[in-house]
Amino acid sequence: MVPPSDDPRSISVIAVTANDVIAALEARRQRSRPVVLRVTPPFSGRMRARLHVAESEPSTDEGVPGSTDTDAERGPPEPLHVDPRAFVGSDAPPYPRPADTGDALRADSDADYTVDRHHDRHRAAVASWRDRVRDHFVAETTIETDRAPVRVDVVVLG
Fold it and tell me: φ, ψ for residue 139 (rounded to 5)?
């Protein structure tokens, strides 16, 4: 077994729960919050990413490949913040917008528009999205680290 490391390039597999990824995607869409899946050091071949609300989006200016920082200058490793979109394919269904469900209700000749009916239809559209997005998880993805991008396998739990 390889001992834990400060180097995120040692990661080969990231495990995530389906519910954490879906919650992060939804929170980003509904509230524009910097919700990520966080991987905390020390790093090893197989890591778990957990739901986390970041203070802010991670900076991409420091520690990028080609930087002159040495390992000694880097200090202790920072947790990795992975955008939840990295875990679903580009063909994943878009998150339903209330305006779209309202328009669909207004266009439905079999139903009269009411605020309650709109709310119920939108809630059903979100529930359907949560089910359908589960079919779009990727088997591998690339995560950005302060040293270099890393290609990892994805294991979805739950």
Answer: -90, -20
Residue 127 makes CB contacts below 8 A (sequence gap 6+) with none
DSSP 101: H
> By three-state DSSP, how is residue 134 classified?
helix
Q: pLDDT tens across 87-102, in order?
A: 999 999 999 999 999 9
Q: In this structure, how many other beta carbons lie within 10 angstroms of the beta carbon of residue 154?
A: 19
CB 138 within 8 A of CB 155: no
Phi-psi region of 44 (alpha: psi -120 to 50; beta: other; left: phi over 0): beta
Write down how long the chain is: 158
Structure tokens at 36: 């990520």
pLDDT band, residue 2 (cuts 50/70/90):
low
Number of neighbouring beta carbons within 10 Å of residue 83? 18
- DSSP at 137: B
Residues forming a β-bridge with 13? 46, 153
Max Cα-Cα span within the chain: 68
